[in-house]
Structure prediction request, 278 residues.
Amino acid sequence: MTVSNESDEPDVEMLQSAVATGDRPDGPNAVSSSLTFGWRALLKIKHVPEQLFDVTVFPIMFLLMFTYLFGGALAGSTGAYLQDLLPGILAMTVVFITIYTGVTLNNDIDKGVFDRFRTLPIWQPSVIVGALLGDAVRYTIASTLVIVLGLILGFRPEGGVIGVLAAVALLLVFSFSLSWIWTALGFVMRSPESLMGVSMMILFPLTFVSNVFVDPETMPGWLEAFVDINPVSHLVTAMRGLMHGSATAGEIGVVLAMSVALVVVFGPITMYLFRTST
Prediction:
C-alpha cells in the first residue's frame, strides 16, 4: 500500500514551462473570417469540379437554345434577338445558380459541420457571408461565359465595356442578396431535394414569367401586370439599359433597393436560424 505525501506540491516552474506564457493572439476580424469561409467554398470546387457544371454548361446551353429557337420567330433574326436576349439569359442563369447556396448549406448542416462553426470565436455571420462570397465567384464565372459566347455570336453592347461591367456588378449584388432567401430555407428544409423543389417553384415563375424572352406588352393584361412588378423583370430592364447605354437612375435604384430589402429581411432571419437550429 502506497501512502501519498500530502506535503508534496506540484512544481510550479515546470507547469509554467509547459504552457504558453505569451499574450493570447487577437481573434480574426469580420473581414478575415468571411474571406476564410469564402476560400472554403472555393476549395469545395477544387475537390468536386463537377460543381462547375451549373456555371459552365448550363449558361451555354440556355443562350444557344433560346437564341436559335426563338430568334427568327420573335425578332426576325437571331442577331437582333440576341441584343435583348443576352442580358435576360445572363440574369436568369445566375439567379438560378443562387439556389445552390442553400443546397450546400443544407448539406453542411446534415453533416454536423455547423455545430462546430457555432463554437468558434469568430464573427458568426462570417460563416454565411463567406459562403455567399464564394458563390459570387461562381456567378462571375457564369457571367463571363455568357458574355464571351454572346460576343462570339454577335452581341454588340452599345454601352461598351463599362456598361457591361456595370450590368454584371448589378447582377452580382442582386444575386448575393437573393441568396439570403435560400440560406434561410437551408436551415428549415429537411433535405437538399426538398430545398431544390421549393426553390424551383419560386424561381420558375419569376424567371420565365418576366421580360427575359418577350416584350410584356404582347401579353394579356393580367399577366403583364405581374411581369411589371416582377423583381427579375426590373433586374433585366436595368441590365439591358446598362449594356446598351440607356439605363436610368430609377431603373438601377429599384434593383439596388430590392437588394437591400432582401438582405434586411432575410439576413436576420438566417442568422436567427443559424443560432437556434439544431
About this structure: Residues 29-276 form one domain. The radius of gyration is 25 Å. The chain has a mean pLDDT of 84.
